[in-house]
Design brief:
Elements lengths: L11 E3 L2 E3 L2 H12 L5 E10 L4 H14 L5 E5 L7 E5 L6 E6 L8 H9 L11 E7 L9 E10 L5 H16 L16 H9 L1 E4 L8 E5 L12 E6 L5 E5 L4 E5 L5
Parallel strand pairs: 6-7
Antiparallel strand pairs: 1-2, 2-5, 3-8, 4-5, 7-8, 9-10, 11-12, 12-13
Length: about 260
């Protein structure tokens, strides 16, 4: 019965580890083999007082308390050498590069620096995110000078939206406006495949060696008994009936697979 469904590798190995999904592994493999090809970043253009490395480090520590990925090391899966694991470690120190530049270059300097460093790969055993701090040393006493913080991450564990969210939270941490959001950790993020299936509001059956699946439950969003609304988890009872946690409808759906 279980072979009817696409067998995704379990996301969480234990509470401190998470396996990358198939799409995430593909992106990480490309980044490792093609010298950082799948890295991307976001630039924060800031006007304000001097930012010390210690101040930035403390703000990053706030983010690490909130996001498991930011406090994790990239490790090779010991069970399958061509796949990767995120291993949570509270001692992870993300790389911070302090790069001096002239004020007149504040609009373009980060581009030049990116070209020089874009081929850097994420080392096994290290974090997947790094930060650059760009400012003019002669502006240390100027409270309204331009400064840039560049956040760089592996595409396998983030997209543009999530990176923008981290950048926004970094500004909150630097300003000390709402430290309460950093008091509790978020859960491990779901895989890309899971997110796509949730958005499609369906459960598919995959036969062995099939190149495509067949929708057996859902397929359209709604509240009817044959519809789903952002399903979260698929389970089986001892009789191999299908149970779907239909989160958007605040219910658990029961399906007899012999009739599906």
């Amino acid at each position: 019965m279980f072979s009817w469904f696409q067998q995704n590798t379990p996301i969480v190995v234990n509470e401190k580890q998470r396996l990358l999904g198939s799409a995430e592994n593909a992106l990480m493999q490309a980044s490792q083999q093609c010298q950082g090809y799948m890295k991307f970043g976001e630039v924060l253009h800031i006007r304000g007082p001097h930012i010390s490395s210690n101040t930035l480090s403390m703000a990053i520590n706030h983010l690490q308390r909130r996001h498991p990925v930011l406090r994790s090391r990239l490790q090779i899966n010991p069970e399958k050498s061509d796949t990767y694991i995120l291993e949570e470690d509270d001692t992870v120190q993300l790389k911070i590069r302090q790069i001096p530049r002239k004020r007149v270059d504040h609009q373009i300097f980060w581009r030049q620096e990116w070209r020089e460093r874009e081929r850097d790969i994420t080392a096994i055993g290290q974090g997947l995110t790094e930060f650059w701090l760009l400012q003019d040393p002669e502006d240390d006493n100027d409270d309204n000078s331009p400064r840039e913080i560049v956040v760089i991450c592996e595409h396998s564990v983030c997209d543009g939206l999530s990176l923008s969210n981290v950048a926004h939270e970094l500004l909150i941490a630097l300003a000390g406006e709402d430290d309460s959001i950093f008091q509790k950790s978020l859960n491990w993020p779901i895989t890309m495949e899971t997110a796509i299936q949730q958005s499609n509001n369906r459960v598919q059956r995959w036969l062995p060696n099939a190149s495509s699946g067949t929708t057996i439950v859902g397929g359209t969003q709604g509240t009817a008994t044959n519809q789903l609304n952002f399903p979260e988890t698929v389970l089986f009872d001892k009789y191999n009936n299908l149970l779907v946690v239909d989160r958007g409808n605040n219910r658990i759906q029961f399906f007899n697979l012999t009739t599906c």
